[in-house]
């Protein structure tokens, strides 16, 4: 790629604990990079990428499914789990099987989890009369008319998961796994489709940097847990358990789960058709080579994709 450089790429970061294993090595300088990191909620990152205000970001899986004309997938990276995830929860005062015809409060912070809940309600439980509304969880739980059930994600789910008034808890990823046998992919890393040629070369370099950050973060997870415990949401042992629930790979197994989810999105009418999985570098045959180099490179900065 030579020595050609451009301004820093704007990289979106979910402002939750779940992405620390990838972003902490970048923000602490363990892995050299030129990113300008922008931290927001998943829903906000989805909208920033849709508007083209970020160059790259982790986004909800449904954001890509709804706007494949604006984004390309970065190879090999995802936020996925193959069983319970602990931080995407439906909490209810009543058994979940009694929620048909009742209202569920939905988080304003996520899109993928909301669609997953609707898929499970409509296709697994065959519920057709559930009502949904969006709201700020903290306010709605204390306004004198708390919801019958609510969907919480991320740090809020970790904080509310043992709420005494909501004893019936559905871990959505666990339910998906039991139902389909597949992992669930909550988020992908994507790049703007309309990047200039020079910017696209920087994105190819950035893919390798993110792979190196992920590798380093998982190697030194105990350090990350020590630092993340300062947030006061989970202790060190709880964080170790939490991070082990995730896989940050986009491989054949997670891709199969992702494609199945997209098919259900079509079935419930969320998207009109299956989106193509269009990877950065694939048009030049680089996608596989980039992934191999990133895995092989480990911690080092990979100069050529």
Query: Which stretches are poorly predicted, pLDDT < 50 over at least 5 residues?
Result: 1-6, 293-305
Q: For the largest beta sheet, what order do the strands appear in spatially? A: 2-1-3-10-4-11
Shape: globular
* CATH superfamily placement of the largest domain: Periplasmic binding protein-like II
Instruction: Write the H/E string, N to C.
Output: EHEHEHEEEHEHEHEHEHHHEHH
CATH topology of the largest domain: D-Maltodextrin-Binding Protein, domain 2
> What percent of residues adopt helix (DSSP H or I)?
40-55%
Q: Structural class of the secondary elements? A: alpha/beta
Distance between the termini: 8 Å
CATH class of the largest domain: Alpha Beta
> How many distinct helices?
12
Largest sheet: 6 strands, mixed
Assembly annotation: single chain
Question: How many strand segments?
Answer: 11
> Beta-strand level of the residues, as a percent range?
15-25%
Average pLDDT level:
87
Instruction: Give the CATH architecture of the largest domain.
Output: 3-Layer(aba) Sandwich
How many domains, as an integer?
2
Radius of gyration: 19 Å
Summed up, what is this model?
The protein has helices spanning 20-27, 42-50, 61-66, 112-124, 137-140, 154-160, 172-180, 197-219, 221-228, 236-244, 252-267, 287-297; strands spanning 10-14, 36-40, 56-60, 71-81, 88-92, 103-106, 131-134, 149-153, 168-171, 184-192, 246-249. It is α/β, with parallel strands linked by helices and 305 residues long. The protein has two domains: 10-81 and 184-297, 3-Layer(aba) Sandwich (D-Maltodextrin-Binding Protein, domain 2), CATH 3.40.190; 88-180, D-Maltodextrin-Binding Protein, domain 2 (3-Layer(aba) Sandwich), CATH 3.40.190.10.
